[in-house]
Design brief:
Two copies of one chain form a homodimer. Helices cover 42% and strands 21% of the residues of chain A. The first copy, chain A, is of the alpha/beta class.
Chain lengths: 400, 400
């Protein structure tokens, strides 16, 4: 009973600390008395918590504010760079890392190429990247947030399976945490992208949304009422490896017929390579050899109105659109945001995706749903991983 | 500011009342002092709330309990029949209503046939049903809970669209509430079925599950962490009208290619009628005429091992299974429960559904997911509607 009371006491302290920190973070300059008013905590409790935060350097005193009669109160604030966050995206051929401050501003970016599917090599590169980010520290590092493809148990930071790197039951979070002596939080890359979009895409805090990342792989992140929804098996939004009717293309996951084999960047490039030799009228046919066709060339061909390129693109868009129709019916969420490399195809792709999604879902639900291409840049996963870290460690929702 | 404080005060009273009522409902007999200990409220607050509940007749005094030294405390309990709940299922050809007590026991059942798609007629029959249920009242009626097919705004009790009865923007809850002077809560029938299964299916309180109702229509109810998930558009689980690739069968919703046109009871009966004339070896061929084939006959033919009947059934199961594979990938929930008329086909149908669901989802997620036929009887929607009513009105989760 004593230890239970002690635990409850510690919990209360933590909750109070987070309440105080949140009200300091949300205001640009605020006095202890004002924090007490905002949080409903006593002045003594607020003062105790603030003392701890001052000592830790997360909060600083700005000097006296306006007096309201008596002695002018000392104003407090959370400096933007009081802590630095390490955000990392594990991509298919690239590791991207950034030092992000408490306002989501990228202070430094480092990229390290990844080649092939060698999981051990990828871990070595990851160490290299973290080293390059944390070494010349301009501020104390709060921890590391990582977005990586695959099935991730976010609670423990374990990668249950990442097909691209052949990681299986890898305790990535624990391993890196021990090595660097820092808290580490790991999430699926699409989940991190959804957090990034939700945090920095100008959406209201409580909004629900589905963010679909369509690149070499395909995955979705689901935000319900402002919170990331992971599902019991941590695999929520795992739409890339859901079978599409009458499709028997082998997938890198070992199964056949997955959406990824029809709607990813790899799928459209491969399809264009298959068809180009038989389409002499296409600009893609003129390529030195069909195996030379890459995403850049396909994007260009679509923009130039090449029939073959557009046919390949629209076919892939139909499959994605039908899956989105299913998501609209299942989740009844009004905002779908598309991110990732496929969005480079722009308007023609988006139009075809929207048309098929609309056709595939109950009209009344589809009419209420917007499907848009995300307007944030390539740092979405990195920023989302940083946002995850900040929520988990400080109880703060990252905001600019 | 005064009115805000007043509102907060009333809110606090309501929360305290629910806390006290919950601890009384969860125990068979308990003293005021014990309630104070369980809720953390002061004895004075508990006594005040209990006085109100005694006066309203929701709580009764059982007499003195065991003394622990001083005066023996008076024990309290919530009598099982302190209030009666009206639970109603609007089916395709039948209205089913029941008087349910506070322990989910059905005290009385009334059925009224529905014919055709006449929405006005259905409303008249609904009045008739409610009249027959509330008139010879054995206990005060708490209110009415209704499960009905269609897109339902559960917050306002408005039927946005019910294709079977051609109800559009019908304020069903408000209308019945005014007429009967009782609180009325309305939910989609599959959502109500999910609440019913979650409440009475022997599942842990916080479990997540998808309940799929497969009958003349198809819909799912999603329970996440013990709470019904409705989605922003109230249409969560609306899988019956999601298009299946390369299917162009016209659906009663006005669209083409919906899952309902392939996997509902209507779909299999219709398909059997189409094929039977060309299958002289089938027992269905021998029917006096293919239009005479009905669900009963098809269930019998499958049980007898009739090839045509099994082919029709397994084809429908494959389509449903693929949709479930998509749900597993999207929601990552470990429990899928199938209910409704299609479950009469039993094992062969279930096996085919499971096989295709497993094939269609990422193996690691599918392996963790059980797909079972619900073991509760036909009153699932009625009980679920009563559970909804009880949660909304008393803040209690119905339990036996």
């Amino acid at each position: 009973m004593r230890s239970l009371q002690k635990a409850t006491h510690q919990q209360t302290r933590l909750i109070n600390q987070q309440l105080v920190l949140r009200s300091l973070y949300d205001q640009s300059a605020v006095s202890r008395a004002e924090v007490a008013r905002l949080t409903g905590l006593t002045r003594t409790t607020v003062s105790d918590v603030v003392d701890g935060l001052l000592e830790a350097g997360i909060v600083e005193e700005l000097g006296p504010g306006q007096s309201t009669g008596g002695k002018a109160p000392i104003l407090l604030r959370v400096p933007d760079d009081a802590r630095h966050l390490v955000g990392i995206e594990v991509g298919d051929s690239l590791l991207t890392g950034a030092i992000v401050n408490l306002r989501g501003e990228v202070r430094r970016r480092v990229e390290v190429p990844l080649d092939g599917r060698d999981g051990e090599m990828a871990l070595a590169r990851l160490d290299e990247l973290i080293g390059a980010l944390v070494e010349p520290a301009a501020a104390p590092i709060l921890g590391i947030g990582i977005g990586t493809p695959g099935l991730i148990d976010t609670t423990t930071g374990t990668v249950r399976w990442a097909v691209n790197l052949d990681w299986r039951d890898l305790p990535l979070g624990a391993r890196l945490s021990e090595q660097w002596g820092l808290p580490v939080h790991v999430a699926n890359d699409s989940h991190a992208a959804a957090l990034g979009e939700h945090t920095f895409g100008g959406h209201p805090p409580g909004e629900s949304m589905v963010v679909i990342k369509v690149g070499r792989g395909i995955g979705a992140g689901i935000v319900i009422g402002g919170q990331l929804y992971s599902g019991e098996g941590s695999g929520a939004g795992e739409i890339g490896h859901t079978a599409i009717a009458d499709n028997y293309r082998p997938c890198r996951c070992g199964s056949v017929g997955c959406l990824e084999t029809l709607a990813s960047t790899r799928a459209v490039v491969q399809r264009a390579r298959e068809l180009a030799p038989h389409a002499p009228e296409s600009s893609l046919h003129a390529s030195a050899g069909p195996e030379r066709i890459d995403l850049d060339e396909l994007v260009r061909a679509v923009a130039d109105g090449d029939d073959l390129a557009r046919e390949v693109l629209l076919d892939s868009a139909r499959h994605l659109g039908r899956t989105i129709g299913g998501l609209i019916g299942t989740l009844s969420i009004h905002h779908v945001v598309l991110v990732g490399e496929m969005t480079r195809f722009g308007e023609p792709w988006l139009t075809a995706v929207r048309r098929e999604a609309h056709r595939s879902a109950l009209a009344m639900l589809a009419d209420a749903t917007s499907i848009e291409i995300g307007r944030l840049g390539g740092d979405l996963v990195v920023l989302g991983a940083a946002a995850l870290l900040m929520t988990r460690e400080l109880g703060l929702a990252l905001s600019r």
